Amino acid sequence: MELEDIRREYTKGGLRRKDLLSDPIDQFNFWLQQAIDAKLTDPTAMTVATVDETGQPYQRIVLLKHCDQDGFVFYTNLGSRKAQHIEHNAKVSLHFPWHSLERQVNVIGVAEKLSAMENMKYFTSRPKESQIAALASKQSSRISARGVLEGKFLELKQKFANGEIPVPSFWGGYRIRPTSIEFWQGGENRLHDRFLYSQEANQWDIDRLAP
User: Which residues form a coiled coil (predicted)?
Assistant: First the structure.
């Protein structure tokens, strides 16, 4: 089969203006809960897009860890490539692909670092193996072999076998404060439904976009 022959119809019923909540964060959390209830694989997985100093965009998938009226939160190594990009250009795009629900959410916003208290609260809630992995890995750096990483992990696991693991100074979170959020619902005959929430003067305007 040729790639151009791969297609399917979208039949979930579409999305209407009357169905939308007035606040996009409330609407997002409503859709997220439906994705969780539908038992989607990794419903909190999102693509984070950043841009380097030359204008080259990069994307990677991370997990959303919190969402409220202040924005969307994820955690990473603060020396990673994405963190270096954000240091240079804090404008970030997020994308949530909920394929089986025929839905997508796109977020455009500005990244800001979380406080040390917020970082510590989340870090200490993680499984111990995840804490050790964060300490062992210098994210995005080149390594000669996987064995180097595994060796460091085992060394730290033994070191902290009976003690608390300190929050690494190079690890933390970002909050993406949204300036616009788009909700996409698949529609029959490729007449998809798209609604864009844009922030104007501390309120959200809603526009329907052509598919």
Answer: none
